[in-house]
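hey
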């Protein structure tokens, strides 16, 4: 495993660990998801460059598009929960109360 592959893999694992262990605020969960998507985007881009094939060059752009859609949906949910519940704490979001 090369150093670049190890760094992208460790960045993804750190984002996943942050998502699973730090579950207090919705904003921190969204930031961990964005970090994971950024590491996937960089690894797909590097993979497409090393292979040199043109059929793999569109995969990072699709991932970047889905990441932007995920970020806008997450921010819309963050604003909606902050308006309805008064905070972005994940423990305040109970499905039985709604």
């Amino acid at each position: 495993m090369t150093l670049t592959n190890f760094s992208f893999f460790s960045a993804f694992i750190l984002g996943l660990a942050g998502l699973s262990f730090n579950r207090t605020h919705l904003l921190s969960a969204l930031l961990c998801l964005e970090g994971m998507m950024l590491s996937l985007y960089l690894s797909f881009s590097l993979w497409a460059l090393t292979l040199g094939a043109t059929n793999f060059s569109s995969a990072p752009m699709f991932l970047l598009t889905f990441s932007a859609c995920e970020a806008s949906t997450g921010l819309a949910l963050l604003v909606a929960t902050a308006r309805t519940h008064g905070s972005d704490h994940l423990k305040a979001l109970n499905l039985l109360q709604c």
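The chain has one domain: 1-89. Residues 59-85 form the longest helix (27 residues).
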